[in-house]
Amino acid sequence: MKPPLFWSNPQNTPGWQALLLAPLSALYARATARRVAQSGYRARIPVICVGNINAGGTGKTPTTIALVQRLIARGYAPHVVSRGYGGKLEGPVRVDERKHRADDVGDEPLLSAAFTSTWVAKDRAAGVQAAEAAGANVVILDDGMQNPSVKKDMTLIVVDAWRGFGNGRVIPGGPLREPVAAGMARGDVLISIGDTRAQDRFSSDWAGSVSIPRALAQLVPLPTGMDWQGLRALAFAGIGHPEKFFQTLRELGVDLLRAEALKDHQPLSLALMKRLEVEALALNAQLVTTEKDAVRLPRAFRLKVVTLPVRLELADWAEIDGHLSRLGLD
């Protein structure tokens, strides 16, 4: 479902729709507060949650991958545990890139599985226990901040710097799973993702609401040897904010002839891909997509579509490293 426009209003002018829905938002917030207050499984190893308080995509998976790489560089064996949104397997199951497809385990676990052992489990506690038994010495929960089934030793809250927390209201009156203050009270570091302009906007709108340390980050395209300058392209993306991907392509010099924004996690059916292929041929354009979408491509299209990989870069890891050290993950 496409978010309603009033969700993106400034917090001081939330819109009449948000005000009308305020009683329902209050009920949603109370339900979340009751849920997160429940007691969960205490693992024998550190558990780090990469979550958000916004509904939808904010950059959790790139953050998870960056954290995985940092821990591996320190000599640890992190395992990722995900609920596997969009996948049909209940789990716990260890993701195998050679055997599993996105409709089995979801697209995000397939991405993280390229970097480290990844588990899909609708029951997060069972997933963490499976990771422990398989030799993990630290677990990263990809999402799950509002899921109480596992106790977290550290929580990173991820936010899109440009969008911030929208109108500051809880679902259905706004884009939040819980109030900003409640989320901050359970977080350790806020990671805001965006360029300088987006970070300045977030500071202007939300700095007074952020009560925990903030780390600035940006998604940066990886060098692939691809000459993007002047490439005629038809791009498609089924991620949280497709327009960010399209803007990145433009900044790389791509001649973006058409940009098709799909729903987040939307299945890439053979019929859809054939339609996009016909349109690209008519425009003499190359099909281009994201890494997350690429894992959902039908096999027949995997060599026909160019992927733009991006990685999360933090301006300063000091705050996160400090929390890792307190967990013994030096």
From TrEMBL:
EC number(s) given by UniProt: 2.7.1.130
Entry's Gene Ontology BP terms: lipid A biosynthetic process; lipopolysaccharide core region biosynthetic process
Enzyme class, broadest EC rank: transferase
Gene Ontology MF annotations: ATP binding; lipid-A 4'-kinase activity
Protein family (similarity comment): Belongs to the LpxK family.
Reported function: Transfers the gamma-phosphate of ATP to the 4'-position of a tetraacyldisaccharide 1-phosphate intermediate (termed DS-1-P) to form tetraacyldisaccharide 1,4'-bis-phosphate (lipid IVA).
Protein name in UniProt: Tetraacyldisaccharide 4'-kinase
